[in-house]
Design a protein that fits this description.
The complex is a heterodimer.
Chain A (H helix, E strand, L loop, with lengths): L2 H16 L6 H26 L8 H18 L3 H25 L4 H20 L10 E2 L9 H4 L4 H23 L2 H11 L1 H6 L4 H27 L1 E2 L1 H4 L2 H14 L6 H22 L5 H16 L5 H8 L6
Chain B lengths: L1 H32 L6 H19 L7 H18 L9 H23 L14 E4 L2 E4 H23 L1 H11 L1 H6 L4 H23 L10 H15 L4 H21 L5 H15 L13
The chains are: A mainly alpha, B mainly alpha.
């Protein structure tokens, strides 16, 4: 990071750290959602932005993580502190499986993207028929009692989730920053730019792509786990559905692919816009107005800033990284 | 038993023919412009509402709305491609994805605003008619829909093969630079292709409107079915779309009869994953252009 970037990041984080002193619970819950989708956007971006592999089925990993933590806690009373690593492991394994199958058979580009959709939709339908997880009726966590200790159950009020997800987002960012400047990160970018050339100079492209998928999937699983803890209820349609896959990838695309800051900026734009659209629809009591507004905004963003909003903003604030 | 399965298979084939028309629209667009239309199912629903409104207002069979739905969506597709999507032909897949998702959400939102979330059934006069042949019982509405779908697919193939514009479209799909060099107006050709793709979806919508109760959120299912079909049959292959449509129609009908109706798409996705892994170009796919 440049000095100017460090100063900006420090200022940004200080503001976020003291914000709960002035914000109300609704604002905090929207911000927590922003942090959550910034975090999964960072995770998705590892695979797409840096390794160049388009996954349109990240709901699969999100949903696996959500169900893992919720089922372990709800059915067996296992703390999410242990559930989270399990969620990471299972989601990473699923992503590695999809990646291995896809990459081993040299499925590239749009075919790979559609393969990821196929796996996530397949899993959604399977979950909708699986008694163990409550089928379409959903899986519910017990309501919080008065003796709930947030640091044990990892569930709590708006302020708890605000800080928990802020920390998750910052950790996710730090991890992806470290990965990107590591050997792995350079291999990924080599594969992204020209896979055949990368292989010719000895980059183990297959292993690198599987590693990107597994890491991205595993981290997304942790995001899903938080989502389940936050809402307390899980439905296959919500956490494993196509709409979730879309929500995961919109923030990083709007913010800018292949940038460490893009997913965060994107989430700060996309989530409030979505909330705003929902509010408007409720206010005028018009079912569907939110889709209309949100869809129009998405079109406007790709029309006017197809490379994402971070590059122009970074130039404006003179925060761009020299390459 | 045999009778039952024969009827299930035939019912699947009939619906599969309409699926094939939907998938043909998706395939024409992908074959020429390499764009995946993620809003395709929404267009089918536009066709369904067109047919529903037509039936509601005139009392004539929904089938008669087919030319209206097709024409409406042709114009919409032409304008959409000319004014908006042509700028995205060279853009990354993820950017195109967001564009089409945006369009899809807008259409679904507009439908929900205009018609509400409730299903809109069409009670046609011929709703319970059946054609009988030996031990087969063919649902009249389904049979008509399948025949019209097949006729439209055949007409589109012939048009692409024999007319000058059709040849220009295939030339542009084969070699864009070459097409430009010999004076094909690419933006216009692309817009016509989008119009045709949209019109296929709209016509199919008019055909299925009496079979499914129209509601805004059906769109996602149609989009996914169309994807599965074009991958199974082969992206950009027109015969592939037909074969894939019939296969998926039968697979879904059998799965619904043998396992459970709500499980039917599970089989399609399994088939899809298998085809991608074993024969990624699809059953009839070639690695090249529209054929």
């Amino acid at each position: 990071m440049t000095g100017r970037q460090q100063a900006a990041a420090a200022a940004f984080l200080s503001v976020l750290a003291v914000l709960p002193a002035v914000a109300d619970d609704f604002q905090l819950s929207v911000l927590a959602l922003i942090f959550l989708f910034a975090y999964v956007g960072i995770a998705w971006n590892l695979m797409m932005g840096f390794a160049g592999q388009l996954s349109l089925g990240h709901a699969l990993y999100f949903g696996i993580g959500a169900y893992t933590v919720a089922v372990l806690a709800g059915k067996y009373g296992i703390t999410p502190w242990l559930g989270m690593p399990a969620a990471f492991a299972l989601a990473a394994a699923a992503a590695a499986l999809v990646g291995t199958l896809g990459f081993r058979f040299a499925v590239r580009g749009v075919y790979f993207a559609l393969l990821t959709i196929a796996f996530s939709e397949f899993t959604r339908i399977a979950f909708e028929h699986w008694d163990f997880v409550g089928k379409t009726g959903g899986f519910f966590l017990r309501a919080l009692g008065p003796d709930n200790r947030p640091l044990v159950s990892l569930r709590g009020g708006a302020t708890f989730f605000y800080y928990a997800l802020l920390v998750t987002m910052v950790l996710g960012w730090a991890l992806s920053a470290a990965l990107v400047s590591s050997r792995l990160g350079y291999y990924w970018r080599a594969v992204r730019e020209d896979e055949d050339a990368a292989r010719a100079i000895g980059v183990p492209a297959f292993r690198m792509k599987v590693a990107a998928a597994a890491l991205s999937g595993g981290l997304t699983g942790i995001g899903g786990a938080w989502f389940g803890l936050l809402g307390g209820s899980l439905f296959p349609e919500t956490v494993l559905g196509m709409r979730m896959s879309i929500d995961v990838i919109i923030a990083p695309i709007v913010g800018g692919l292949g940038s460490l800051y893009g997913p965060i900026l994107g989430a700060f734009i996309v989530i409030p816009l979505n909330e705003f659209a929902k509010e408007l629809a409720q206010h005028f009591n018009v079912n569907g107005l939110n889709f209309l507004i949100y869809g129009a905004l998405l079109c406007a963003i790709v029309l006017f800033a197809p490379h994402g909003l971070w590059p122009p903003l970074a130039r404006l604030l003179r925060l761009e990284t020299r390459r | 038993m045999l009778e039952l399965y024969a009827n299930v298979v035939v019912g699947g084939l009939l619906l599969g023919a309409v699926y094939a028309l939907i998938a043909t629209g998706l395939n024409v667009i992908f074959g020429v412009m390499r764009m995946v239309n993620f809003a395709h199912g929404e267009l089918v629903v536009v066709g369904m509402y067109t047919a529903y409104l037509f039936w509601k207002l005139t009392g004539l069979p929904a089938l008669a709305a087919l030319p209206i739905a097709a024409a409406l969506l042709f114009v919409a597709g032409y304008a959409f491609q000319r004014l908006l999507a042509n700028r995205f032909v060279e853009a990354g897949q993820h950017v195109q994805f967001i564009l089409f998702i945006g369009v899809a959400l807008m259409i679904t939102g507009a439908h929900a605003i205009a018609f509400g979330p409730d299903p809109r059934p069409i009670q046609g006069a011929a709703g319970f008619d059946v054609y009988r042949a030996v031990f087969l019982r063919l649902d009249a509405v389904r049979t008509q829909a399948a025949l019209f779908a097949l006729a439209l697919i055949a007409a589109l193939w012939a048009w692409l093969k024999y007319t000058l514009t059709g040849k220009a479209i295939r030339a542009a799909a084969d070699n864009l630079t070459g097409g430009r060099a010999i004076g094909i107006r690419i933006p216009h050709v692309f817009a016509i292709v989008a119009g045709l793709g949209f019109a296929c979806a709209g016509a199919a919508g008019a055909l299925v409107a009496p079979l499914f109760d129209t509601q805004p959120y059906l769109a996602g299912d149609f989009t996914m079915i169309a994807f599965i079909i074009v991958i199974v049959g082969g992206l950009a292959s027109l015969p592939g779309a037909l074969l894939g449509g019939l296969l998926i129609g039968v697979a879904e009908a059998l799965a619904a009869a043998l396992v459970a109706p709500s499980m039917k798409s599970l089989f399609s996705y399994a088939l899809l994953a298998l085809v991608i892994l074993l024969r990624p170009q699809g059953l009839l796919g070639k690695r090249s252009a529209l054929g």
